[in-house]
Amino acid sequence: MAISDSPEILGSTATVTSSSHSDSDLNLLSIRRRTSTTAAARAPDRDDSGNGEAVDDRDRVESANLMSNVAENANEMPNSSDTRFTYRPRVPAHRRIKESPLSSGAIFKQQSHAGLFNLCIVVLVAVNSRLIIENLMKYGWLIRSGFWFSSRSLSDWPLFMCCLTLPIFPLAAFVVEKLVQRNYISEPVVVFLHAIISTTAVLYPVIVNLRCDSAFLSGVALMLFACIVWLKLVSYAHTNNDMRALAKSAEKGDVDPSYDVSFKSLAYFMVAPTLCYQQSYPRTPAVRKSWVVRQFIKLIVFTGLMGFIIEQYINPIVQNSQHPLKGNLLYAIERVLKLSVPNLYVWLCMFYCFFHLWLNILAELLRFGDREFYKDWWNAKTVEEYWRMWNMPVHKWMVRHIYFPCLRNGIPKGVAIVIAFLVSAVFHELCIAVPCHMFKLWAFIGIMFQVPLVLITNYLQDKFRSSMVGNMIFWFIFSILGQPMCVLLYYHDLMNRKGKAD
């Protein structure tokens, strides 16, 4: 069977067939003309020879050759109007061993699932639209007029002033590096001064937060800013210390690194979307202004969507709940499951707004080239893979300034991982407990609980050898069980604290 005989090819070659139809007709016409000319030239021979049987045999042979040529041309150049020679019953319809598209062995092999993805999007939009309409009909418009700005926001000015004074600490770190570069102070003094500067950069916002009865979001923003400054200061001090060590070894003939303390490099590092200091970064050639405007519009839209979900869904669910560790178990499970979906939506919007929109906007304005702020963490098969892929700036900082320094100092790999999670747990607790003005250690326990979860999910992944099983376990632990439980715990503890204070 020729390739053109297949009906699949006919659909895709309709244009070529129609364009070449005239050439096929000319070829057939020329064959007929040659045949008729040959027959006419041989007509006198039939009359002279009288051998009619021989002439008839020759005519039959030429006629058969003509029909075979016609059939070959028809098979080579099929068209939509002539179906005499396409997909004949004698042609086999089954020629290869094939699997069904949804078979387990073929579902992920060279197949596009764009249609199923579009179906999921349509169903998701339809279902959530119905839930939004039902919620508005049942509860009305719950978003307060002071959601974005209220009179209480004016009382947060001490936190705002604290944010404005935090750049003093990077400036102090720069002065220390300049002094050690000129050999005015020794190496132990440098380490001591950097420890004082970085520790003060965190304690100062903590004290301001605890002394001011500010809004929760304002306190979280200040603590996040302070933690970022602390991470950058540690990276700045650690990197310069390493470059000084290499410079001293270079004087002995090993290497020749370029060590320079530049205020311009430090200023760019403090505003760049990275936590790892280096003297230069890959840069893009220009700023795409129209692209930045589009990303800002998306940022405003998704931030408003987060506020709508929080005010319209999460707050009523949490306010109508009981403490998950003190009430009815079945009721607590029902509240956690009901809270899991809107909480997941808010978390995904937060991730998209910060890690994709805001960091890319900042990188575009600063022409920062390395924009791998996250990887495909949604495909994570274990908890370990999730923590390695979802927040790349923090992951690179942990690997560079905690994990490998621990290994180089002889600390076992497992202990180094525990130390990295311990640092992460401390800062998670600071960012949540300090704005809430209470230390229940729920965030700290939740992060440290990731260590046994890493071992469990790695074991399950090795046991089942299936990426789908590991990914489903990750999503269940992450979105169904973990985050909604933390939201309920902190909300009820905060309400209990306010009740006692009143």
From TrEMBL:
Q: Where is this region: Disordered?
A: 1-58
Q: Where are the transmembrane segments?
A: 116-137, 157-176, 188-208, 214-234, 296-314, 344-366, 415-435, 441-460, 472-492
InterPro entries recorded: Diacylglycerol_acylTrfase1, MBOAT_fam, Oat_ACAT_DAG_ARE
- GO:BP terms for this protein? triglyceride biosynthetic process
> Localized where?
Endoplasmic reticulum membrane
The principal location of this protein is endoplasmic reticulum
Q: Where is the composition biased (Low complexity)?
A: 12-42
The molecular function terms of the Gene Ontology recorded here are: diacylglycerol O-acyltransferase activity
Give the domain of life: Eukaryota
| Pathway(s) | Lipid metabolism; Glycerolipid metabolism; triacylglycerol biosynthesis
Q: What is any one of the record's Gene Ontology cellular component terms?
A: endoplasmic reticulum membrane
Which UniProt keywords are given for this protein, alphabetically ordered? Answer: Acyltransferase, Endoplasmic reticulum, Membrane, Transferase, Transmembrane, Transmembrane helix
- The residues annotated as the active site are H428
Q: How does it sit in the membrane?
A: Multi-pass membrane protein
- Name the residue ranges with Basic and acidic residues bias: 43-58
Q: Does the keyword Transmembrane helix apply?
A: yes
Hey, which family's this protein in? Answer: Belongs to the membrane-bound acyltransferase family. Sterol o-acyltransferase subfamily.
Q: What is this protein called?
A: O-acyltransferase
Q: Which organism is it from?
A: Theobroma cacao
